[in-house]
TrEMBL record:
UniProt cross-references to Pfam families, sorted A to Z: DACNV
Protein name: Gll4136 protein
Domain DAC positions: 250-425
Domain of life: Bacteria
Protein species of origin: Gloeobacter violaceus (strain ATCC 29082 / PCC 7421)
Length: 434
């Protein structure tokens, strides 16, 4: 297999920079190709260094300091701090600055000086809100200016963005389009359609009992809330650096899987009572509260109103949802899988996958969101956790597994079009700690 390097990434970014939602008039122009290559090459070399045994991770933004308002700051904007002198732009200077300009909270400002040389002008403090759309949570911050942003999240791992919008990634010598975010697929929400219908029916019953003119909920509200839960679980597992596996199964299999069966067994199972279904309880309470609090609204309300609300009840419910997601992520630290139904009912953890008679030697790696284009790869080089997930999905075609490696890489695995198929969650911004 041939490998891609910063020069390949620069050419790809140059070709795709003006695509997407942003209009050309709103974009900050890219620097010339040779300057872009230098920015990416220097960032790449910095990513290969260590700082007191810590990996070198950072974000940088290529823009003039005057492009960032001096009176702005987190949680909504950028707190721009200029150095009294421009600093050299080298891998070692990036390494030295990385502990002060932490990946999650700041960006290193880079520009061209009067002689056309790349220099570091200072630090822009962003705060954490920019991460919430990817890791789950309410109240996102303002998007970054539509300038060149380079995110270095690990050894040889770069993501290039136009402001907050990802353009392309370089990971393990592979050049990847930023379009492979599994949460944007059609198949993922389709697997939860029946569950959403059940919640909508329960919400409608609560509306009738209230006798009040509750607002109509936007059709994507439940989907957004459900994805928010999954993102929070994944992000928390990554911070543990232990890895883990979450298995989603059809609710109709709950009784079978909690008894002796040929698919999997639990070290720790939970009794079928309300606490096992706490996610579902909280989702319904959030739906009801959101509709009631926007009573009389002439238009449907949904995720936007939820994330922007300052209502104490919604804040408390969101915190409860956040804590439950953290709890499930903690369960994944125990060897074995956490098993959840598509109703978000927690069956147990420490799940051991049997399917001993199944030997999945090849899996399909999806090259697009829907798995219509795939390449086949051997399973010989993957670990026990991945092979177990492949065996289960080969036997239970309605199961979906999320496998988080110790290094933070994530794969969604399911049966698709006659093969065990995996999707790599390729957004490098999600590979870092809170």
């Amino acid at each position: 297999m041939s490998h891609a390097y910063p020069r390949d990434l620069a050419s790809f970014v140059l070709k795709h920079w003006s695509r997407g939602e942003a209009q050309a008039a709103e974009q900050t122009p890219l620097p010339p190709l040779n300057v872009l290559e230098e920015i990416l090459s220097t960032s790449y070399q910095a990513s290969l260094l260590v700082d007191e045994q810590r990996p070198v991770t950072f974000r940088l933004i290529f823009c003039e300091p005057v492009d960032l308002p001096s009176g702005d700051g987190p949680p909504q904007g950028l707190h721009r701090l200029l150095f009294d002198e421009l600093q050299p732009f080298t891998p070692h200077d990036l390494r030295r600055l990385s502990p002060a300009a932490t990946f999650d909270r700041s960006l290193i400002g880079v520009c061209l000086d009067g002689e056309g040389e790349l220099k570091i002008w200072g630090i822009a403090h962003s705060g954490l809100r920019w991460l919430r759309p990817m890791r789950g949570g309410r109240a996102p911050g303002r998007p970054l200016p539509p300038a060149l942003v380079v995110c270095t999240s690990g050894r040889g791992r770069l993501e290039v963005c136009r402001g907050s919008a990802a353009i392309a990634q370089l990971n393990e010598g592979r050049l990847l389009s930023a379009a492979t975010n599994v949460f944007d697929s059609l198949w993922l929400p389709a697997g939860f359609t029946e569950v959403r219908s059940e919640l909508i029916a329960q919400h409608s019953e609560a509306r009738e009992r209230s006798g009040e003119p509750w607002a109509t909920l936007d059709g994507r509200t439940i989907q957004s809330l459900g994805q928010n839960i999954v993102k929070r679980i994944i992000a928390t597992i990554r911070t543990r650096h232990h890895g883990g596996m979450i298995i989603f199964v059809d609710p109709e299999r709950a009784q079978t899987l909690t008894q002796k069966n040929p698919y999997l067994s639990f070290k720790y199972g939970f009794k079928p009572e309300e606490p096992r279904a706490r996610f579902r309880t909280l989702l319904l309470k959030i739906m009801n509260a959101l509709a009631a609090l926007n009573c009389g609204s002439e238009r449907p309300v949904g995720w936007r109103e939820y994330e922007q609300s300052n209502n104490p009840l919604l804040a408390t419910l969101d915190e409860a949802l956040f804590e439950t997601a953290h709890f499930v992520a903690d369960l994944a630290a125990v060897d074995g899988a956490v098993v959840v139904t598509r109703r978000f009912e927690l069956l147990g953890f420490g799940g051991f996958i049997a399917c001993d008679n199944v030997d999945v030697r090849v899996v399909a790696r999806a090259l697009d969101l829907e798995g219509e284009q795939v390449s086949f790869e051997s399973t010989a080089s993957v670990g026990t956790r991945h092979r177990s997930a492949y065996r289960l999905c080969h036997q239970l075609h309605d199961a979906m597994t999320i496998v988080v490696s110790q290094d933070g890489n994530v794969r969604f695995v399911r049966w698709n079009d006659g093969f065990v198929t995996c999707w790599s969650q390729q957004t490098l911004l999600e590979l870092n700690e809170f």
